[in-house]
Amino acid sequence: MVALLLGHLLWMALGRGASSRWQHLANLLAAPPRVASARWEGWKAARQDRVADLRHAQTELLTLRAQVTGLLTAREASAPRLAEADEAVRLLGLKRLLPLDFRAARVIVNVRKAPFGGMILDQGEDAGLTPDQGVIAPEGVVGRLWEVGASQSSLLPLDAYNASTGVMLARSRATGVLQGLGPGKAAIRYIGNQEVVQVGEPVFTSGLDRVFPRGLLVGYVSAVQTHDVELHVEVVLAAPLDRVGLVLILPAHPQMEIQPPAGPPQAATGKEAVK
Amino acid sequence: MSTPSGTPLVRRFLLAVLCLGGIHYTAPWPGPQAVLNTFLVLGLAPGFNSPLAGMAWAAAGGWVLEGTLRLYPHLGGTAFGNMLACLLAFSLLLRWPPHALKPYWGRQAVLVIVHALLIHFSVRFAAGPSAWGTGWLWSLILIPAWATLALRLHPPLHRK
Fold first, then answer.
1. Which stretches of chain B sit within 8 Å of chain A by CB?
2. What is the DSSP string of A18-30?
């Protein structure tokens, strides 16, 4: 026992001994746990990285969701203004094309489909409006002013049953009177049955009613039927009366003529052409 | 000296071998490794038939522990400290055989501290300054586990 103690003490006192073989053996024996611990530490590090990546991705996802929600909300909030701005841009383009003194107005009520309904504009006598002034939109003619109040006015759309507008056909230049038939539709009266009318043919204002200048687009022929001595020509209106929000009000008794777009008339099928 | 233990030597021998293997294979985890070394030195080795056998087991534990440390000079400092601590534990066991669990825990706690100090200073003597580490803390915290097991290996002393 004493020898064991003294031997150790002597070994310690002598300092570092020749322990390379022992160390080599110990290293060899310690290889399995060393490999296992290395794999364990590697697995832990990889798992920490994955957890960190997952948390980062979740945080980023939450941020992106919040941003998307905010953008959607902003888009929904600005959608009406954008639509109105688009319409205003188109109105401005139309205003530049026609050298007339227009007044822009906003449709504040649209009860066109109700019995005896119509549309209410936000301009009235305060803006110098008088009844029977024409109202147009970039897509086509909308109607005419029916009653003018102090600050608002009612509009009689083209498809109202009591609306009459002087029109002409694009190809034959035959003139007639457009009368409303209900939402989005109208019919042309007083066109003789000797005229050639094709489905799809554009219909323009004739200017004879002294409300609209000659040559404004009204709509397109949708059907043609022969009655005794005249043709019954149905027209689909060009202006989207359900969606129109901004309109231009023509001056009273406009003295000008707009040249309708020249070009070959649209080809019609044989059975749709009526003579 | 008389033999302090009547526990079957085979069981104690097998436990000591398991401890040596455990010390070797728990090298990546210094805390559990220190607990196994402490259990071998303060719990198992003092119960062998002779102090020489106990000291030999303690020295073996110290050498195995040092052998698992790759960047550590193998100069026997741990083995020397283990032998001294084992001798001290053997003497205490012989002079004051344990009769109750809690006093035995307290004695083992003191021996753990002394064991740590002996190892530290013998290693410092052999190889120069070294880190304290936290192995002694692991051994202190786990005294209720390993000291209880060590006491169960000394039933004859209870009846002495």
1. 24-29, 51-52, 55-56, 59, 67-68, 70, 73-77, 79-80, 83-84, 122, 125-127
2. S-HHHHHHHHHHT
